[in-house]
Design goal:
binds histidyl-adenosine monophosphate; elongated; 5-stranded mixed beta sheet; alpha+beta; single chain; 22% strand; 8-stranded mixed beta sheet
Length: 417
């Protein structure tokens, strides 16, 4: 028997309804903040991620699904994230506009070859937004967080922890990174092998280390937040001020460096206490300069992405978001003529926009009624030879158990919007 590939899963109809409900809420919230949806391809040139996300990151060096196209030359990669593709598209379609922000959102599958566990998959869904802008006003960062908080409120998600940091800019970061490298080198014996390597290649990544014995050493490392240039300090203070204006609570964590190389200045994560080990629900930050790195126009960028599987795990009562109405009408038929009549009636009812279930198995009335109950149908229309002759259909409300007789046109009228 052929089974699911490790780290993937199916979403079956009742759950897809929940996903739709969540996506509908998201679209409404994002669009109320003037974001427009963008859809980019599932695969891109590998170079986009190598240059965009960074060769030394875990995502690019270990987790990508990369393959050669049939021409044996072109290297393609299933997208592991959405920011680099959105910026590619922004450059390619000349969306850059001196006079305004370009606000885009996306909802779709991403692919990373990570070790599967609760809340971590190899194909997972992200919803994300990207603001591409001529200026780097930190007010947009606070506004995006406000939007996220509104979304969580609408979905009933609480117990969230917003963690923020600033990782500096191309001016102040290099000297800090050099300092960090020297510190890690100086205590190399205490660090794990991975950290020693990270210390040489990309010292910021040392902060991602989960090895227990490294933690006390990491605690002692200098924090970027204490080594920012004046402009970065002002920017960070501005961002926090705008959060305070909105009464959004947060904590600053100097260890929050994020696993993608395009970030600068503001980074943030939202953690959810209901998630267990994989507790990062949202990750995001500022990425001024990514457009230039991909040969695009000078652009400031800010955005986030959240995992939809983790979002669903954080919703306390998901069934409330998508209560499970069955079909509006179950057509229960007795005999061949009634069945033929019902196939046409079903078409008329469906044309009004309501959902109709018609059973094709030729079961007894009793078992059709049982099935209607199982499917949670709102009403059952009972159709037999007598009903066809008299033109009066018996309609039973499955909640109140009340029955009434209606003509076909009355029933269709009633079903209509
Ligand atoms: P990221 O932190 O790599 O950021 O991913 C964002 C979110 O995607 C995570 O917080 C998590 O909820 C979800 N996620 C990541 N990997 C997995 C996985 N293997 N299984 C399930 N969920 C996962 C980015 O991707 C950036 N592009 C975010 C961004 C947008 N920054 C600026 N703009």
């Amino acid at each position: 028997m052929i089974k699911l590939v490790r780290g993937t899963y199916d979403i079956l109809p009742p759950d897809v309804r929940l996903w739709h409900a969540i996506e509908t809420e998201m679209r409404a919230v994002f669009e109320s903040y003037a974001f427009g949806e963008i859809r980019t391809p599932i695969f891109e040139a590998t170079e986009l991620f190598v240059r965009g996300v960074g060769e030394e990151t875990d995502i690019v060096s270990k987790e990508m699904y990369t393959f050669k196209d049939k021409d044996e030359k072109t290297s393609l990669t299933l997208r592991p994230e959405g920011t680099a593709p959105v910026v590619r598209s922004y450059i390619e379609h000349h969306l850059s506009d001196e006079a305004r922000m370009i606000k885009l959102y996306y909802i779709g599958p991403m692919f990373r070859r990570e070790r599967p566990q609760r809340g971590r998959f190899r194909q997972f869904y992200q919803a994300g937004v990207e603001v591409l802008s001529p200026n780097d006003n930190p007010a947009i960062e606070a506004e995006v967080l406000e939007m996220l908080m509104l979304l969580f409120e609408r979905l009933g998600v609480s117990d969230l922890d917003l963690v923020v940091n600033s990782i500096g800019c191309r001016e102040c970061r290099p000297s800090y990174i050099e300092r960090l490298r020297n510190e890690v080198r100086g205590r190399a014996a205490g660090f794990c092998e991975d950290c020693r390597q990270r210390g040489e290649k990309n010292p910021l990544r040392v902060f991602d280390c989960k090895v227990k014995s490294c933690q006390p050493l990491i605690e002692e490392l200098p924090r970027i937040t204490d080594n920012l240039c004046q402009q970065c300090r002002d920017h960070f203070a501005g961002f926090r001020g705008y959060l305070d204006d909105r009464e959004i609570t947060y904590r600053v964590d100097g260890r929050l460096v994020r696993g993608l190389d395009y970030y600068m200045r503001t980074t943030f994560e939202i953690l959810s206490s209901s998630l267990g080990a994989q507790d990062t629900l949202v990750g995001g930050g500022r990425y001024d300069g990514l457009s230039e790195d991909l040969d695009g126009p000078p652009t400031k960028g800010f955005g986030f992405a959240m995992g939809l599987e983790r979002l669903i795990l954080s919703i306390p009562e998901p069934e409330k978001l998508a209560p499970g109405p069955g079909p509006a009408y179950f057509l229960a038929t007795m005999g061949e003529d009634a069945f033929r009549y019902a196939t046409l009636l079903a078409r008329k009812l469906r044309a009004t926009g309501c959902s109709v279930y018609l059973d094709f198995a030729g079961r007894s009335l009793k078992s059709q009624m049982r099935l209607a109950g199982k499917l949670d149908a709102a009403s059952v229309v009972m159709i037999g030879d007598n009903e066809i002759k008299s033109g009066r259909l018996v309609v039973r409300d499955m909640n109140t158990r009340e029955q009434k007789e209606l003509s076909e046109s009355e029933l269709v009228e009633l079903a209509g919007p």
